[in-house]
Amino acid sequence: MRFRLTPRETSFYDMFAASADNIVTGSKLLMELLGADSSARAEISERMRAAEHAGDDATHAIFHQLNSSFITPFDREDIYRLASSLDDIMDFMEEAVDLVVLYQVDELPKGVEQQIEVLARAAELTAEAMPNLRTMTNLTEYWIEVNRLENQADQIHRKLLAHLFNGKYDAIEVLKLKQIVDVLEEAADAFEHVANTVETIAVKES
């Protein structure tokens, strides 16, 4: 790591960690959705919406700190990109839950549970990695594993699409379910964007 003579604003580390912890909360709500009947889903959706709002607040706090700090722990554009990508994850997870409720989906197709399990694992890894930005240590395995999980998510997504178009569902149901599984895939992509940003930061700081 480069030796620095100037002090750096360190509150960013805590804010990134808080944002990632909130994503873990969102992933647990997704898991909860899997086992919930239709009557319980609206309440889960409300809690997910509250978590998404908390994520927005965390992102705005990072942006405010960025705009008011003369010295930052790493490049400003990387701070902005990392905060935005973390926020995207919560947005996609909240959208998926909201769509399940709005579309009054009776039963999610087989394979969605695998999508959500991948997201839950990526959330745990991301939450574990964020505090390590302070020292830039033990991060390589994180971004390698998240990229592997994103590849796994791609495979699950393709299988889900094949299942949806096998003739079992009517056209309207296909459109509803496809939008849900597509949004979950976007969440997996957003986890990869976070991991790629962390890798970029680590390389610059090495």
TrEMBL record:
<protein>
    <submittedName>
        <fullName>DUF47 family protein</fullName>
    </submittedName>
</protein>
<dbReference type="InterPro" id="IPR018445">
    <property type="entry name" value="Put_Phosphate_transp_reg"/>
</dbReference>
<dbReference type="Pfam" id="PF01865">
    <property type="entry name" value="PhoU_div"/>
</dbReference>
<dbReference type="InterPro" id="IPR052912">
    <property type="entry name" value="UPF0111_domain"/>
</dbReference>
<comment type="similarity">
    <text>Belongs to the UPF0111 family.</text>
</comment>
<dbReference type="InterPro" id="IPR038078">
    <property type="entry name" value="PhoU-like_sf"/>
</dbReference>
